[in-house]
Structure formats: C-alpha cells, structure tokens
Amino acid sequence: MLGAVCHDLGKPLTTKFTDGRIRSIGHEEAGVAPAMAVLDRLNIHTLDGYDVRRAVAGLTAQHLKPGMFKKSPTPVSDGAFRRLAMKVDLELLARLAKADCLGRPGSFDCSAMDWFLERARALGVAHAPPTPLVLGRHVLALGVPPGPRVGQLLKQLYERQLITGPCSALACSPCSLVPSPLPSSVAWRGSAACEGCCSSLCTYWPSCRDCRSDGGCSDAGTPRDGSRAG
After folding, report:
1. How many CB atoms are located within 10 Å of the residue 42 CB?
2. Residue 21 pLDDT greater than 50, yes or no
C-alpha cells in the first residue's frame, strides 16, 4: 500500500510539457527521496523485522521496469531479472505495476505485468535474489589463502551466477578464478578439484546433471552432505 501511495511522488519534480506532451521522465528515481520523506514523517522504518523503507524505495525506483522489460526491443535476459531481484521484491513490483496500469482512465493492455511475474517465478527470484552457491569456505577449500582475495573471488562468482544462472556459475567458475596450479591435496568435497570442472562440481552437487561439452550442466541445488551451499 505504501508503495502504491509513494511510487509517483517524483512526478511534481519532473513533469514537463515537451513536444506537445506532458511527460515525467525520470520520475521513478526522483520519487525515492520524497517517498523516504513521507516515511520519515510517518515514522515508518521496519515492521516485524521487514525493512519497509527499502521495499518502498525499491518499488518507487523500479515501478516502470515490468513494462520496460516486456517492451524491450531485444529479449531481456534471465540475468536482468536476477539483478533486479537484488533491489526489490519482483512479485510486489509486478502487482504494483499492474495496479498502476489498471488504475488509469481508459483501456490499457496490462498483460506485461503478468508476463513479468511469470518470468520471475520461473527463475525462482519472485521474492529474493539467488542465494550464493559458492561461499568463502568453498573458495578456501580450493587452496586460496584467507584474505581480501577470497571476497573478490566470491563477488566475481556471484556476478557470474546472476548473469548465467547456477549451473554455468558453478561449472568451472571457481576453477578459472583461483590460482593455478592448485595443491595436489586440494579436493572439492571429495572430488578432484578442477579436473574436469563440471564433473568435479557435479560430484558435489548431485542434482547438477547432464554435464555438457561446454562445461555447463542442467541444475544445481543440494550438496551430497545434505546441506545447502547458501
């Protein structure tokens, strides 16, 4: 509800009469500060541990994205959805955008919001971005010494995960980023590290199946020890 109330607060700051049309270019980003001012006035910060301010800021700044993604002249990648999920709850965003569309006078095609939500759900990012599949302990197990480099590698690996998805991120990513050669004693949870990256990582991730010649695989989920990497 607060997202619906606040999402267009940037329009007074950006609305202009241009080329015979009334336009509010950039109102979504411009609306974040006024939205936060409203929440400050209402003394709203969190609710039962839920970060209301972050949610409203994300909804305000991104509320045009569902329509923009659908109308994009080139197909929007899965990675774009994963990245956006780091900024805002995509289901809330789709619902806000659809309410905004349906609330306009006249008749409009609001199917873009349904398409957007279906994509987000299919990717498993409707409510949160992907959980990192590779953690610090996994990088350390590959022989990388403790230090800033571990954090740098984790950042690069998560970036690959967002762009390419879990399987491609796992297949060879840790191997290609760590120094070579690795100590002969290094093992990835019982499999030889980086000796055929896909096969070694698929040994660790039993649901990572159908290793392909390009190093990818079909899925990634639960390690053999029953825990989740995230």
Report:
1. 10
2. yes
Mean pLDDT for the chain? 78
Joined tokens for residue 204: 């660790």
Among left, alpha and beta (phi > 0; psi -120 to 50; other), residue 173 is alpha
Kindly state the tokens that stand for 31. 């609306």
> What's the DSSP call for residue 17?
E
pLDDT for the residue 167: 60
Instruction: Answer yes or no: are the C-beta atoms of 7 and 27 closer than 8 Å.
Output: no
| 3-state secondary structure at position 24 | coil
Contact criterion met (CB below 8 Å) for 184 and 143:
no
Task: Please state, in angstroms and rounded to a whole number, the distance separating the CA atoms of residues 216 and 220.
Answer: 11
First-to-last alpha carbon distance for the chain, in angstroms, is: 32
Cβ-count burial 43-78 (b if 16+ within 10 Å, e if not): eeeeeeeeebbebbbbbbbbbebbbebbeeeeebeb
The pair of three-digit structure tokens given for residue 22, joined into one six-digit string: 């009334």
Determine how many CB atoms are found less than 10 A away from the CB of residue 17: 8
- Contact residues for 146 (Cβ-Cβ < 8 A; gap 6+): 140
The yes-or-no verdict on residue 30 having pLDDT over 50 is yes
Q: In 3-state terms, what secondary structure has residue 131?
A: coil
Residue 187 has φ and ψ, to the nearest 5°, of: -140, 145
pLDDT value of position 221: 40
